[in-house]
Design a protein that fits this description.
- It is a single chain.
- Helices cover 40% and strands 22% of the residues.
- By secondary structure, the protein is of the alpha/beta class.
- The strands form two sheets. Strands 4-3-2-1-5-6-7 form a seven-stranded mixed sheet, sandwiched between helices. Strands 9-11-10-8-12-13 form a six-stranded mixed sheet.
- A hairpin with a 3-residue loop joins β2 and β3.
Length: 351
């Protein structure tokens, strides 16, 4: 059984979430999927860098070091230390790179360069990083194809809740003609709490305390995050040419408690809805904005930090998936599912 060699670039909450799943499920993955792995390198600009091609890294120990607030390169892990993420990608003999660095929606860096470097060096990539996929989807997909490599990004949208794999494996033959959904758990939580009588300011503070929102929350409340996600969905599921900068975007900062109350009095709810639709000219347009939904709309009842996606198609009525859209365990599972998908396709090709 061939051992799959993995390099992690980015080992924060999501990278560690993936690593935890790999450790917990190692026997199961080997038995059920014939998947046996060895992590040969980890590189993180905060936690440090370590590589051991021959023996592989002790992944449980790496996770323990992080849990104790220690650096990966402090000597407890055996291996070469000090390599930059780019040097790690270029020189590692890994079969695949798990890219789990932070999202940058201005230029996609450093994740974009990480992914390009990995593909050019002959490595498959599984990433949770929205930036590169939202800003350079077609470029990256074409590069992967030209190099005979796989690029997978399940956890960029709705974390570990299946979206792209649902399209790939369960909706074969269906032409997707539209998408709508709740794609940001932070804003959905805020709107849910406001519907229960709490103020925007009070609820935003609570989301920050719970870790749902950053100290600087504009990525969520000004709808940059769901705009990136609907860009990815439109381009990947509808073969569109949507530019992130062209997504019509409106956040939730202007919504008042009075707006929420008036909506409820009319049996409606306000949700931040992302949509992608194909016009008569064949072009796909995308938007994210607060929307009044009647109580009869399924999405009106998706509350808290949950996400939901409705897929409209030409072969049957809509399919709706609802599930967690954030969190280290969920996004980490999305990465693990991509790792397995890459492995399974390679096994099939060898047969």
């Amino acid at each position: 059984m061939k051992e799959v060699r993995i390099t992690f670039v980015g080992f924060g909450t999501v990278g560690q979430g993936c690593a935890k799943h790999l450790v917990r499920s190692k026997r199961y993955l080997k038995k059920e999927f014939g998947f046996n792995y060895k992590v040969v390198a980890i590189s993180d600009i905060v936690k440090g860098s370590v590589r051991n091609e021959k023996q592989g890294l002790d992944l449980p120990k790496a996770l323990d070091l992080c849990a104790r607030g220690k650096k990966l390169d402090d000597g407890e892990l055996k291996g070469e230390i000090g390599l930059s993420p780019i040097d790690t990608i270029k020189t590692s003999k890994a079969d695949m790179v798990v890219e789990a660095t932070w999202t940058n929606l201005k230029d996609g860096e450093p994740g974009l360069t990480h992914i390009v470097t990995a593909l050019k060096s002959g490595k498959d990539v599984a990433t949770s990083n929205k930036g590169p996929i939202a800003l350079a989807y077609k470029k990256l997909v074409n590069l992967a194809k030209s190099k005979g490599r796989q690029l997978r990004f399940e956890s960029t949208v709705m974390s570990g809740t299946p979206v792209f794999s649902l399209r790939e494996f369960c909706l074969r033959g269906a032409q997707i003609i539209g998408i709508r959904g709740i794609l940001n758990g932070t804003t959905n939580y805020i709107l849910t709490e406001m519907a229960a009588g709490k103020s925007y300011t009070e609820t935003l503070k609570k989301t920050q305390e719970l870790g749902y929102a950053e100290a600087e929350p504009s990525g969520d409340v000004e709808a940059f995050d769901p705009a990136a996600k609907i860009t990815i969905l439109a381009n990947a599921l509808m073969d569109a040419e949507v530019d992130f900068a062209d997504v019509e975007r409106e956040g939730i900062t202007r919504i008042s408690s009075d707006d929420i109350t008036k909506a409820a009095q009319n049996s409606k709810r306000i949700k931040l809805i992302a949509t992608a639709t194909r016009g008569e000219d064949g072009c796909v347009k995308a938007s994210v904005k607060p929307t009044l939904l009647p109580d009869s709309d399924m999405l009106a009842h998706v509350n808290g930090v949950m996400n939901a996606l409705q897929i409209m198609m030409n072969v049957q009525p809509d399919v709706t998936v609802i599930g967690p859209g954030a969190g280290g365990d969920s996004a980490g599972y999305g990465l693990m599912s991509d790792i397995l998908a890459i492995h399974n396709l390679k096994v099939k090709r060898r047969r």
